[in-house]
Write a structure and sequence with these properties.
By secondary structure, the protein is of the alpha/beta class. The protein contains 12 helices and 15 strands. It binds prephenic acid.
């Protein structure tokens, strides 16, 4: 071993010892905070977002912003687990993008609860069988996830966080299979996101929609004439070959997930509030309904609608605004908006996703 290499490794050993001591000191403080919290919620998404934002501001590299957030999310996950282990429900099985989003947000899962459907994910938390839910809400290519929006209209859970997950699809196939490809398995949303690529490269091959991408990977693992569209993680879990990577039509393909729980998130300084609104079905009603936002200088970042299921051409509106509902300007705007709406529900105020 060269002297230079040995010198670097000796320095790394010394730094690791310091890191170990410091991380354990941090963990001991988290455990102390856990005792102070008593019966209150352990998971504080606003504080975790503040910790990450502060470190990102201080980071001078060479580690990337993504690397720094991944490392500190994992540190916080382990500190949090000393306070109490949380269970997180998501659309399973193992290997889905929902699982990836849950791991990203919580820095690792101590007690994962994969579920068969988005309905079951909500139910798990509502019934107290899991602490938090992670559900997909919209994709940059395919739009809103209707089932999640419908369940938000009736749930008692609060949105307490959001996760933005870049989605890079792979074409996966059973190892050593080389015959004709007769079927492509994937979730309908992923088939839609890879539509152009499939037309160009596998035009004419039957597309079979599955409950999840992980299920598609599992089916492809048993079928020598099939391929699946899923993520890298699913390839590892089900032992599949990756035939092609990044096959999504839009390279900036992102899915946004919501974190839901029984507790509200406190203001973090950079928050969003999601609202569910309805108004009388008359011309110009939605414009009038939203006027208080403009009057109080509150930015609307998103406006979507869903059939209300109460009557034909009757809609509810999903509105995202900047700020926390406790921020004074937002509180004033929401108070006025509530007077004008025929339905008004704050689905949650939560920290804006940290990369
Ligand atoms: O500050 C707290 O409330 C903590 O419990 C500490 C800590 C952390 O590790 O920084 C852990 C869990 C919480 O979700 C937020 C932050």
């Amino acid at each position: 071993m060269s002297d230079i290499l040995k010198g670097c490794r000796d320095q790394i050993d010394a730094i690791d010892e310091q890191l170990l001591e410091l991380i354990n000191a941090r963990a001991a403080l988290a455990r102390e905070i856990g005792e102070l919290k008593g019966e209150g919620p352990i998971y504080r998404p606003e504080r975790e977002a503040q910790v990450l934002r502060r470190l990102l501001e201080k980071n001078t590299g060479p580690l990337s912003a993504e690397a720094v957030t991944a490392i500190f999310r994992s540190v916080m996950s382990n500190c949090r687990a000393l306070e109490r282990e949380l269970s997180v429900a998501f659309l399973g099985p193992q290997g889905t993008y929902s699982e990836e989003a849950a791991i990203k947000q919580f820095g690792g899962l101590n007690n994962p609860k994969p579920c068969m459907s988005i309905d079951e994910v909500f139910r798990m938390v509502e019934s107290g069988n899991a602490d938090y839910a992670v559900v997909p809400v919209e994709n940059s290519t395919e739009g809103a996830v209707g089932r999640t929006l419908d369940l938000l209209t009736t749930t008692s859970l609060h949105i307490c966080g959001e996760v933005a997950l870049p989605i890079h699809h792979c074409l996966l196939r059973r190892r050593h299979a080389d015959g004709e490809i007769r079927r492509i398995y994937s979730h309908a949303q992923s088939l839609g996101q890879c539509h152009e690529w499939l037309n160009l490269n596998l035009g004419g091959v039957e597309r079979v929609s599955t409950g999840s991408n992980a299920q598609a990977a599992e089916l492809a693992a048993q079928d020598a004439f099939a391929v699946a569209i899923a993520g890298r993680r699913a390839a590892d879990i089900f032992g599949l070959d990756i035939l092609a990577e990044n096959i999504e039509d839009d390279p900036k393909n992102v899915t946004r997930f919501l974190v839901l729980g029984k507790h509200e998130a406190a203001p973090s300084g950079q928050d969003k509030t999601s609202l569910l609104l309805a108004t009388k079905n008359v011309p110009g009603a939605i414009v009038g309904l939203l006027t208080p936002l403009a009057e109080h200088g509150v930015d609307m970042t998103e406006l979507g609608s869903r059939p209300s299921k109460l009557g034909i051409w009757d809609y509810v509106f999903f509105v995202d605004i900047k700020g926390h509902y406790q921020d004074p300007a937002v509180a004033r705007a929401l108070h006025e908006l509530e007077q004008r709406a025929s339905m008004f529900k704050i689905l949650g105020s939560y920290p804006v996703a940290v990369i």
